[in-house]
Specification:
Elements (H helix, E strand, L loop, with lengths): L4 H18 L3 H10 L3 E3 L10 E3 L6 E6 L8 H13 L4 E4 L6 H11 L4 E3 L1 H11 L9 H14 L3 E4 L5 H10 L8 H13 L4 H4 L1 H11 L2 E4 L14 H19 L4 E5 L8 H11 L5 E4 L11 H14 L4 E3 L12 H21 L3 H15 L3 H7 L3 H8 L16 H9 L1
Helix pairs in contact: 3-4, 3-14, 5-6, 6-10, 7-11, 13-14, 14-15, 15-16, 16-17
Length: 423
């Protein structure tokens, strides 16, 4: 990937801190970014942004989706959710707001947190038409590009753009008889636009203009999976792979312009297909960082999709995914609240830790070893400090914090039983 002056300047400034945080050699990071297998999320217009690496062998990152809806326009609640996500250990946040003053909501989020912020610019482009009860596909290609540029100027660090949703992919969805059709909001809007205008996807036909915007602001393009399966029975169908093939070519074009790219992946994928899906997408897309939603390994757990997603997320990260988008207990049911956000972030962080420990990555292995040693010593402070959710450990211990043993075992504690005998 040729030099991007903005990216080069950011990397020169932040490389020592990034290397220390990730426990990686600086030159390894620089080479991975040059190769496109790692991205640096940081738009200089996002004041105080914490530059964040996504891609192997950096640590697996976790994203939290928040945002208003047409039913619930409460920006203050979304700022609170952002704060909860950050406190729970999320590495990035995506503002998926569709209700209220979207520019003001986005600006407030950028000011409220140093975490890299992602968006789906298409939502902002179509909102005025939906509010006016007009066809959401009424927007022009120029309107969409203007929305993307406005958000880049605001400081948005990465954007989901559904460039791979083609007329051919849309036709394949219909031919395959998908159970759930197109479940991506951005994907469905794009398909409707193509049918309404009888034209190809405007983000595909105007891709060079999109790259011009991205390179100026160091906006990482998250090439969206508009054809992702929304049901396990639809996973791996021709429409899904048609989009991936297009994204592979778009990745090369972005790299040729110095633009950073991530690939978005599924979706709903049965357990036995996760490895093939992840490895197939990574191979086709030249090792670009892979950003997955879950994936959900069963469709039968509404209310517990954060667990189903964590199962798929752990497998996905083990087989090569770099970035886990959380799911919350509210998924498929309603707008998540603060507690849903907290549970979703922790579930995905557990998935990431599980995968990285299995992969033998030093930071994860050391964490598991250190907490095991703390348990052997009945060192509750160290156990809490090393836990993925320290407040939870302290809360559970509170009633019996004066005791060395836990309240489950008491004087039957296995650790003390043999320790005291040896003494």
């Amino acid at each position: 990937m040729p030099n991007n002056p903005v990216l080069t300047r950011l990397l020169d400034e932040h490389l020592p801190a990034l290397a220390k945080r990730e426990a990686l050699e600086p030159e390894l990071i620089r080479q991975a970014i040059a190769d496109g297998t790692m991205v640096l999320l940081a738009n200089p217009a996002h004041a105080g942004v914490l530059p964040t690496l996504v891609g192997q062998p950096a640590t697996v990152k976790v994203n939290a989706n928040i945002g208003t809806s047409p039913f619930v326009e409460a920006p203050d609640k979304e700022i609170l959710k952002l704060q909860i996500a950050e406190a729970s250990g999320a590495h990035t946040v995506m503002d998926l707001s569709t209700g209220g003053d979207l520019d003001a909501i986005r600006a407030a989020m950028l000011a409220a947190s140093p975490l890299p912020l992602g968006t789906v610019p298409l939502y902002g482009c179509v909102q005025k038409y939906i509010r006016a009860k007009e066809d959401p596909a009424s927007f022009s290609a120029q309107e969409l590009l203007e929305e993307i540029e406005r958000q880049a100027e605001q400081g948005v660090d990465f954007m989901t753009v559904h460039c791979g949703v083609t007329r051919r992919a849309a036709a394949l969805v219909e031919e395959a008889g998908r159970v759930l059709g197109v479940v991506s909001r951005g994907g469905s809007i794009t398909v409707r636009w193509m049918k309404t205008h009888n034209q190809e996807n405007p983000l595909l036909t105007h891709y060079d203009q999109l790259l011009d915007i991205a390179v100026r602001h160091n906006v990482t393009l998250s090439l969206g999976d508009g054809m992702r399966p929304g049901a396990g029975c639809d996973a791996g169908d021709p429409a899904q792979w048609e989009e991936v093939v297009v994204l592979a070519e778009l990745t090369r074009r972005a790299w040729a312009r110095g633009v950073q790219v991530m690939i978005e992946g599924p979706g709903h994928v049965p357990l036995h297909q996760v490895q093939a899906q992840i490895q197939g997408i990574k191979r086709l897309c030249h090792g670009a960082p892979l950003y997955v939603l879950g994936p959900l390994t069963t469709d039968s757990a509404p209310g517990y999709d954060h667990i189903a997603g964590a199962i798929g997320g752990a497998m996905a990260a083990y087989f090569g995914a770099d970035f886990l988008c959380y799911l919350t207990p509210a998924e498929h049911l309603t707008l998540p609240d603060g507690e849903d956000v907290r549970q979703g972030v922790l579930a995905s962080r557990i998935a990431a830790q599980s995968a990285e420990n299995a992969l033998g990555r030093p930071l994860a292995v050391r964490r598991d070893l250190d907490i095991s040693r703390a348990r052997a010593a009945l060192d509750w402070k160290a156990m809490a400090d090393l836990a993925l959710d320290p407040p939870m450990v302290r809360h559970r211990r509170q009633a019996h914090a004066d005791r060395e043993e836990c309240a489950m075992c008491g004087e039957y504690c296995a650790v003390k039983m043999l320790r005291d005998f040896k003494k």
